[in-house]
Design brief:
about 230 residues, alpha+beta, 7-stranded antiparallel sheet, 3-stranded antiparallel sheet, globular, disordered C terminus
């Protein structure tokens, strides 16, 4: 009798564990399907050659050309980089899913001809999120308890990226902007926080100069701002 009870307990634990893991993965799939793949038409922030939406609760703490650092209410740092060169030349996404990662998914939206990926790797007890979509990439290093919120924020930002082709034709076509400092390929994952943490530490220490809040109070308290930006 005790043996049967013991086996029953083991089976319940195994089934429950598998269910939790499947539910966890399914939740990220749902976020991708219902947020990232749903194009956001309104933006509330503009950078060089593109606009995007910053979710409520996030603020810009620094910008450096096309590198943008944001923070959320839990002090998680988001490193956003838009690869306007790859967008301009329509470089194809070369990501391949990695079954060794905590989560790995290649994302293809055939309706709007956009693609990317979401990959999450566990590193030293925390989780390194690398998400790329529509030629923009975001990296975040967060605890598991913050992971779902982080993926939601990342998905909202990336789903809103909207490029201004008229501006890019001028800046890239005439080589007005210098993009030689781009330090990584957005189409491949780094699977390491080394460069990310170095970059974030640079701004947390104030080494980059004055913090640019981009109207912190407005971003936290105002609703979405409709920014008109031409695509053609």
């Amino acid at each position: 009798m005790l043996r049967k009870l013991f086996l029953a307990i083991i089976i319940i634990i195994l089934i429950t564990g598998c269910s939790v893991e499947r539910l966890d993965i399914s939740s990220y799939d749902n976020i991708v399907d219902n947020i990232l793949l749903k194009s956001r038409k309104l933006q509330n922030s503009v950078s060089q050659g593109y606009s995007y939406y910053i979710p409520r609760g996030l603020v810009i703490v620094n910008t450096d050309e096309n590198n943008i650092v944001l923070k959320d209410k839990n002090n998680n740092s988001y490193f956003l980089y838009a690869d306007v060169i790859s967008y301009y030349h329509k470089v194809e996404n070369s990501y391949e899913e990695d079954n060794k990662s905590y989560y790995s998914r290649k994302i293809v939206n055939k309706d709007v001809k956009k693609s990317g990926y979401l990959e999450i790797n566990e590193i030293n007890g925390k989780f390194f999120v690398e998400a790329m979509y529509n030629y923009a990439k975001i990296e975040v290093y967060a605890t598991k308890s913050d992971l779902s919120d982080v993926v939601i924020n990342v998905s909202e930002i990336l789903s809103s990226i909207k490029y201004n082709n008229k501006v890019l034709r001028t800046t890239i076509g005439d080589k007005v902007l210098d993009y030689k400092e781009a330090n990584f390929n957005i189409f491949t994952t780094k699977k390491s926080t080394t460069n990310y943490l170095d970059y974030i530490e640079k701004y947390d220490s104030g080494a980059a100069g004055e913090i640019k809040s981009n109207s912190r109070d407005e971003l936290l308290n105002d609703d979405i701002v409709d920014i008109e930006i031409a695509e053609d």
